Amino acid sequence: MDIFERIINDEGGPLGQYRVKAHGYFTFPKLEGQIQPRMIFNGKEVLAWTFNNYLGLANHPEVRKADSEATIKWGLGYPMGARMMSGQTKLHEQLERELADFEKKEDAYLFNFGYQGMVSTIDALVNRHDIIVYDSEAHACIMDGVRLHMGQRIVYPHNDIVKCEKALERASKLVAETGGGILLITEGVYGMTGDLGILDKIVELKKKYKFRILIDDAHGFGVMGNDGRGTSEHYNVMDEIDLYFGAFAKSMAAIGGFVAGPTSIINYLRYNLRSQIYAKSLPMPLVEGCLKRLDMIRTMPELREKLWTITRAMQEGLRKRGFNIGKAEACVTPIFLEGNVAEATNILIDLRENHRIFCSCVIYPVVPKGVIMFRVIPTAMHSLEDVEYTLNAFDQIAANLKKGIYKSEEMQDKSLD
Questions:
Q1: pLDDT tens digits for 355-372?
Q2: Which range of residues forms the domain containing residue 352?
């Protein structure tokens, strides 16, 4: 069969099957206006709980000033080329030094995109003799990196330390035959459910097994821990984490990321990360902008304090009203739903059209099959009044759920005016 013919005849995949009714509303929605709690959706003002703009830096006046001045100074083109060939600057090196110092590591290396950086890091670290051990709910960038691995990989059930140890025990026997090593990959904060990786328990297993730990802390960097150094600081295990991966797209509201660890390993990655060797260097405005953002994370703890005030108010309020938000130990706040996609769709329409609240609905393959959830992201931009308004709306949602108002076999029309 012709490739295009197969694609056209296909339903569109697990998400694409909803494209006709969902595009522009549930998927690829267009939020307009400045990045702030209230924005415009389909011509109407909504209270937005959908951005990973944890510290509110996306539209912070100091950040905008730094970004605009750097853009005027450098333009978006400089430096031209990849880091190895013609894309290296003193400011790239300065940002790496400051990130390494912040994470209490010897060295760090910048990525132009976090997703590609993680995929390429995994690819560079392991060979066919090595074994990868990883959590079943790891982010897609980890999964894609694992798929590139030509050796064996072992998955353990999410945050199950007993099964994790069994995986390490099995991996240890395998590498005794292959002559390779073991790389364990976990997340600091799981970005859909807001629960934390069990880093404290995993590092304890180093006393029994020989392996290295790579942590993806995209949602923990800048947010978790007393100083915002991440989930490893939260657990007080920074020294036990071999390689720390952080992303700029969340707390720093930018583009890019980094990996931090021993100088010898970071130097190896500099010369072997395909996603960086063969791609353009991070543009200078982003580098200067991230230097400013990192400085604000270090010197403005009040942003983090405000974030946690809003987060705790939202999570405590939802739990009090009987909503299932799982473990939700970080800022990401899931609201798990029982029922089907059509029912969840009707709830989301009610939230957007009648309550003017914008959050995202998440289904497979973003989360495991059978899971349907709304994803609420508290930020330092929001107010306690925003939280109260939202909780009152969910009171009405809960009442309607009990009455069965949202039950339907079909996705309803979005025009409820």
A1: 999 999 888 888 888 788
A2: 3-54+301-403
